[in-house]
Task: structure prediction
Amino acid sequence: MTDRNIDILVIGAGPAGLAAAIAAREAGITSLLVIDREKEPGGILRQCIHNGFGLHRFKEELTGPEYAQRDIDRAAELGIPIECSTMVLSVSRDHLVTCVSPVYGIQRIQAKAVILAMGCRERPRGALCTPGTRCAGIYSAGTAQRFVNLEGFMPGKRVVILGSGDIGLIMARRMTLQGAKVLACVEIMPYSSGLNRNIVQCLQDYNIPLLLSHTVTDIRGLHRLEGITVSEVDQNRKPVPGTEKHFACDTLLLSCGLIPENELSLGAGVSLSSATSGAIVDETFETNVPGIFACGNVLHVHDLVDHVSAESYKAGCSAASFVLNRHSEDSYFSVMDGDGVRGTVPQRIHRNVDSPVDLMFRPAGVYRNCAVVVECGNIEICRKKAQIFTPGEMALITLKPEHLRNLDENILTVRIERN
Amino acid sequence: MDQVITCINCPVGCRMTVSLSDTGEFLSVTGNTCPRGAVYARQECTLPKRIITAVIPVEGCRMPLSVKTSVPVPKQLIREVMHELGNTQIHAPVRAGQIIIHHVLNTEADIVATRTLP
Result:
């Protein structure tokens, strides 16, 4: 039984879903709907009250809520319906979406195209294999951020942060400003995966030590966290005996990576990449399931929301083209990760592509004064130099349509050429 | 005297080398890749400033209000600004962009709401 028929259904009203919906409406789709499980649109930006968003897109520095509001306002201007407090339970291969909400109960929506924009989740404690007791006081950094910024309470007083991703750094500052003592930020790698600006303005400004090549090796506390042990690690990330430091703390925040949230995608038969944990897509952001598109952090984890918006706008345009029956030929290049490159998106590119394609990837390590090279067989088709590549910053190289003409092979390889 | 600082204006985070006189006065900067970097370097070596973002409780509302300083404030005033915010009482409704405190601590910065609370 179907309750409603629409052209495009967007799952998620964060920056990705909003940008995709705006693009689809601007491309002429009138029958579309955005749904979100939270009670308001805006996604994770609602709790990111710090500034630094929108420099690329709006040429000014906004806080998360302000950035989200611009898209919410634009969506309202275009009359795009957004249904909140609505949880999608499943998406089928042929675009039948089952969702549940307090207003409509269970409803089934048949869409001509579906845009997956569910964002990502934080890697939880269970995935880190950290030893110690199962006491209260251990949160993911994003959960703590939600408590402090949206729910209005502090999760603890003496804090250690494991992982130096941007959310962890931002929360080090946030907890400090709200009166907590942040004892240290502990990072297992020899470098931080956060932005340099955040190391300066979130840690150095408040004299919070960043312990590189260290990890948490014990967690103590029966009911509430009482203390943790931090040890140095060797090159193989194994703790070095004798280097233990003890911290008395009541709170441990985990900022150890983000994972695209793809349960719904898997249910729809969407194939995922092991490198990105997101869907395998072509340059139009269409997955292997025709008419299902993916964009934003559900596709691959971005550093900047500006990039999420740009990518998702393209996905929205593609979904509109799909609905309006503008199909292109199904002959593809496969894009492979070469030396020093991980998780290139898109993984497939139409051979007859007629607009530039951004190849986005994560460098596998820190490389200085090198170049990213795209090759087809033995032919180099594109090259871009860079002073530094780090895994903390997504790298990008743009292929022009003319780069992809007159090539015999079907495989494009992206690699980093080191001197 | 040379000093290496990291620009915080944008996500690139340029590493810049600043030359200071013996008395600590700013002389020149290299390594910045845009004009904003030069402005930041001079400011950072004379009077470092930051935008502050925080939340303040709203009476009768579970969700706090997110706010920011309209312009950067001197770094040494951050604690005092936070203290000031802790003592601020407000009532809904609040519109995004509404000024909550004019010229906080007699600086040029206003405390501005960054979201709407109906």
User: Anything to note?
Assistant: Chain A has three domains: 1-121+258-327, 124-256, 330-419. The mean pLDDT of chain A is 94.
